[in-house]
Design a protein that fits this description.
Helix content is 37%, strand content 18%. Helix 4 packs parallel to helix 5 and helix 9 packs antiparallel against helix 10. The chain has two domains: 343 residues, Endonuclease/exonuclease/phosphatase (Deoxyribonuclease I, Chain A); 97 residues. It comes from Tetrapyrgos nigripes.
């Protein structure tokens, strides 16, 4: 514990009631380990769906993290919680515009209402720090076409706007969570470029992106920050993943990003206010729960130490790692420029914006076609209901009537669901795409005007 640094921890707890195996035992183990780690200043958890689990964690760590916030969203809750050593003076949650389809019950993203949860923390040196915790839409993977990941692209764009706006208000930003995206994908590019966020892992491990593939799962964790789908994790071991995941011994899906307030440097480039710099970042909770054969979660945790450098007390250069590598070194196909400092505005490149626009345009067409199909099913169900009702007096046997009554109830349910999916949700999804497309087109025109 030190006022000259911030120790940040994030983890996806996999805590869905009735579904996640050994949920109570695992959450208890996570809480106990956090209780034995008094050095943490900020802890952000995802998939902490059950409020009783949140209360358990809060009670165990309240001695050194007395301030906490559980965030509500959707039908089942956002599963997001933030714990802090320093006072939380404000909090809000921004549910993402699109979170999957209502009919995708197994996915569950629409029901839980995934969101970006923010807590404003009052720090004795930094002042206001906005901590943003999120869990982006899961489905879509990393392979194209991009329109399959359109809901995640929408979430990443909204997340980036929140982080950017916080910095423009003069706040430090710490953005963490399970982003369901590997570093080379478009959602991470959107977040890093538009919000001008530094990736704590790449700052602390500047050669991670260009390092050779690891030869063991443990090397992949230590060298590349693998947090999910690792063979070392009991919940991932033995699963049949895609070739790239198997070759890389998992994926890096969990991140700790940070940035300074906008205009944090003077014209001569010298910092005018305290600055943050990641000096250490490591994957945590890679061991099994004590006395068992299972891991704490299907994700590992991630910890970062952010040193606070004041203008009057700069950190020794020997204590600072090399600068973060460029996007191209991170194998990013949409950008080759290095991440800018907070004094130099970072913007989405034309290539990134055009890729997003193309993806959302394709997704809007898919949405329209699906809506028409679902409305056609709705009309067909109405025709079937009318035919059954009209023909019921001519049923040859009375015992057939109860069967057709149950059949009518089922058809009526299908018709109602298709009406909601095709008309209400379909129009909502299409309008969300079009609003974002127009917003990005305006943003692109603004950037063109600034370059002229």
């Amino acid at each position: 514990m030190s006022e000259t640094s911030l120790n940040v921890f994030t983890m996806n707890c996999w805590g869905l009631k009735y579904v996640s195996k050994y949920r109570s035992e695992r959450v208890t183990a996570i809480a106990n380990e956090l209780a034995n780690s008094p050095e943490y200043d900020i802890v952000a958890l995802q998939e902490l769906w059950v409020y009783a689990d949140y209360e358990l964690v809060r009670a165990r760590i309240s001695s050194h993290l007395p301030y906490a916030k559980f965030f509500y969203s959707g039908a089942l809750g956002a599963g997001l919680a933030i714990f802090s050593r320093h006072p939380i003076i404000g909090a809000e949650i921004h549910p993402y515009s699109l979170n999957g389809e209502p009919m995708d019950v197994t996915g569950g993203d629409w029901m839980v209402g995934k969101a970006a949860a923010s807590a404003i923390i009052s720090h004795p040196i930094l002042g206001h720090v906005q901590v943003i915790n999120t869990h982006l839409y899961a489905k879509g993977g990393e392979d194209g076409p991009e329109h399959k990941r359109a809901h995640r692209l929408m979430g990443s764009w909204e997340f980036a706007k929140i982080a950017r706006h916080a910095a423009e208000l003069g706040r430090y930003v710490i953005a963490v969570g399970d982003f369901n995206s590997i570093p080379s994908t478009l959602p991470i590019t959107i977040i890093r470029q538009h919000a001008d966020l530094s990736d704590a892992w790449l700052v602390a491990h500047p050669f991670s992106a260009s390092a050779n593939p690891s030869s063991t799962p443990q090397e992949a964790i230590d060298d590349h920050g693998i947090t999910a789908d690792s063979p070392i994790n009991s919940w991932s071991s033995g699963k049949n993943f895609d070739v790239q995941t198997r070759q890389n011994f998992g994926k890096r899906l969990d991140y700790i990003f940070y940035r300074q307030p906008k205009h944090s440097s003077r014209a001569d480039g010298i910092a005018s206010i305290p600055t943050l710099r990641c000096t250490d970042c490591r994957v945590m909770f890679t061991h099994e729960v004590g006395g068992t054969t299972y891991s704490h979660s299907d994700h590992f945790g991630l910890r970062a130490t952010l040193e606070i450098q004041t203008p009057s007390n700069p950190l020794p250069s020997a204590s600072l790692p090399d600068v973060e590598p460029s996007f191209s070194e991170a194998q990013n196909a949409w950008s080759t420029a290095p991440a800018a400092s907070s004094s130099t505005p970072s913007e989405l490149s034309d290539a990134v914006i055009n890729t997003i626009l193309e993806s959302l345009a394709q997704a809007s067409l898919v949405s329209k076609r699906r809506s028409r199909k679902e409305l056609s099913i709705f009309v067909m169900c109405l025709i079937i209901l009318v035919a059954v009702i009209v023909g019921s007096p001519w049923f040859p046997h009375s015992w057939i009537s109860p069967i057709f009554m149950v059949f009518n109830i089922f058809i009526a349910w299908v018709a109602t669901t298709m009406l909601y999916e095709g008309f209400i949700f379909g129009n909502w999804e299409f309008n969300a795409y079009m609003n974002t497309i127009e917003e990005l087109e305006l943003h692109q025109k603004m950037l063109e005007m600034e370059r002229q």
